[in-house]
Structures are given as C-alpha cells and as structure tokens.
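User: Show me a protein chain along with its predicted structure.
Assistant: Here is one chain, sequence first, then structure tokens.
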Amino acid sequence: EAHSAFRTWRRRQQYYSENKSYISLLFCLLSCASSFGTRYTPDWTSLDSRPLPEWYDEVKFGIFVHWGVFSVPAFGSEWFWWYWKVALKPEYILFMVKNYPPGFSYTDFAPDFHAQFFDPDEWADIFEASGAKYVVLTSKHHEGFTNWGSQTSWNWNSVDNGPHRDLVGDLGAAIRKRSLHYGLYHSLYEWFNPIYLSDKQSGFKTQEFVEKKAMPELYDLVNRYKPDLIWSDGDWEAPDTYWNSTGFLAWLYNDSPVKDVVVTNDRWGLGCYCKHGGYYNCADKFTPGQLPNHKWEKCQSVDTISWGYRRNMKLSELMDLPSIIKDMVYVVALGGNYLLNVGPTADGMIAPVFEERLRGIGAWLKVNGEAIYSTKPWRVQAENATVPVWYTSKSSTVYAILTSNPMQNSFKLLTPKTSHNTVVTLLGNPEPLKWAPLQTSGLIVLLPDLPFSPAEAWTLKLDA
C-alpha cells in the first residue's frame, strides 16, 4: 500500500511539473472570476451587502472637526448664515447690526478665515494624545466653502480665499504620519448655491447641481486625498436618486483607490439614514435604548450647543470629562463608535478647554483602553448595581466598567458567570483581586482603594 501511494504521489508531481503554467493560469482565472463576482451594482440591495471594513469597528473612538467660514463670526452655531438670512433668528440679526456695517455679507467673512496659527502637526499631536484612532474633518459644510482647492468652487475655497492653503491635504498628511485613519465630512447640498436652488425649484427633476458640483467634488476628494471614511451629510431635501448616490458608492466600492478600506455612513438621500449605506449615524447624537443590530456611530460635540467654534460659549454648556467618558462607554458597550467633535477657531487654534478634554480622555484610555478598543458587546450590556456598570468583551475576557465610585470595599456583579479559574483585576493595578462567587450567579469583589480618576470611571477585568 505504501508503494502504491508513493507511485500515485510521483504521478501527481510529474503532472504538476508538466502542466505548471496551465494550473497557474487556472488559479488566476478563478481568482479573477471571484473578484468580478464581488462587484457591487448601483442599488441598495447590493451596496448594503458590502461588509464593513474591519478597522472601523476596532478603533471605537474618533475626533470630528467642524471648521469653515462660520468659524469667523463664531457666534451661535455653524448654521450662522442660515439663521441670519433664512430663519431670521433675532439674536443673529442683532449680532450683525451691532458688530458689522450695513451691507456686510456672509461672504465678507471669508478673508478673515485666515488660519494663521494652524499647525496640522500640533492638531495631530492633540488628537493622537486623546486616544482617538480616526479623525474626520469637514471638507465642506452647508455654506459651500471648501477647505481644499476645489475646481468647482472658484474663489469660495481655502486656496483662493481665506487661508490660501489646502487645509484638507495639510491635516491629512499630519494625521497619517501618526498612523491614524483620516476621514472627510462632505455636505451634498449648499444652502444658497443658485444651481442647487434651481434644481430644488424644479422639484429635483433636474440634476445640474449634482452633475456640476456635488459629485465632481466627491470624486475629487476621493481621488486626491484617498480618505478612509466619507461622512456624508446635507442629503435630506432630495432623494438618493437625485444625488446619484448609488452610482457614486458603486464606484467607491468597486474601482476607487480606497475601495478596500473606505467606510461610509448612511446620509445619502431622503429616507436613507438608519437604513442604507455603511454604518448608521441616524440622527445627530443618536442614542439607542438597546443594542442595535447594525454597526452605528454617535457623533457628539464637546460644546453641546454648536459643532463649530463659538466665542460666546460658556463652561456650563460644555461636556465635562466624566460626562464624555460615560457617553463613550455607553456607546461602545452598545456596539457603536464614538465621534467627538471640537470646533477650531478661525485662526486655526483648538481652544485650551477642548484640548484639556481630549488629553483627559487619552489619559483615561491609557489605563482603560483595552476595555474599549477592539471589543465587542457582551451578552449583557449593562447592570444596575450600586453604581452603573457597562460591559464589553474580547474573546473570553469580560470588562465591567464602573462609571462612578461605589465608595465601598466590596462590590457585587450579578451577571458574570465564574469558575475556579476566573481571575479579576482592576485595570491599572496588576495585582489580582480577591473575589467570591454568589449563590446563583455573579460574584463579589474586594476592591482596593480606587486610584484618583478625573474621568470618574474604573474597569474590572474578568478572565475566565
């Protein structure tokens, strides 16, 4: 039998040697066929079937940056132009009457968007220190001003006006030097673009704005800057068929230079959010009450009133560090990503109060990051113990994150199932903690003196 098997092996080796080139060609053809089979067609059934690139679920925490001409008046909101000219909010009108001469237009703000203190490496250092793994910059907000030299935004962009530099490119280079992922926010619509308003007047039966402005800019952003993430917005007035969203996404997923890594959100036309696209943003500051069945992201601003910088912001209107950490822990426990926004000043500075918040998050993540990064929702997401507890997991390890100090030496966790091999530690404290099982399920842990934490959150690690 051994002799027969040897002869069979020899015949196969000889066949392979004689037909090596043909076999290699066959494997190539099979590979190509497989590749063609995974191409996405411009319809939601096909596009929604695309698996989300793994990096996005692993990173968990990102920084959102709202920056534009609205940073010059720096009053009220990044929707300043709209509130002043359309909503006619009295406080905006009064602000202009008191501070600017008659006839002053919104476009007159642009030359003062000079960004003379903008140091992209300094920004990137702050973002890296925060523990964030991706950064999303506004390439264009609803005002239509582009933060790069868009060929379709003559004199209403950061190269021809204001800073006279490529803000998108400069920040992107600094971010990538630190191995962070770089994403771009892009508003599909523009409040006062006459071409868009003409399409709107037609009931969106014409698509001149899409063909001449919105889509050329999106293609340009992808080809020029190769973003890892596209955060679409400004879609809600028209259906996705007007925006040609499915056609763009099919190109993005099939043929673009970022087709294998790019991640997109769900704002691609009226009725799309929380339904179509990549991960779901749903509404701003989306906060689900239970574990969603689709990957999602919560975008939240340190300034609870505005996404853009406000000169009139008050400390009481800003999220403090414990509130941010509690919010992030909640989001990650429910399977989401946390995208925290800061609004830089018109001269290119990140306000010290924002920097303080970001560095505080980073300090907490240096100790507790393993309970956040690359984790999955556990079978139970939360427990109402003597203090709120949120759970995350990684393989057979379970993390119980306490979002306030229990102020006692012993602490009960009712949900985990233990064995004789279970080891309990406090992140930041290498010594195992003493514990005992409860009668039915769970355990009681003997806590050490908890170290000081400005974030007011600590993590128990349970290894099975």
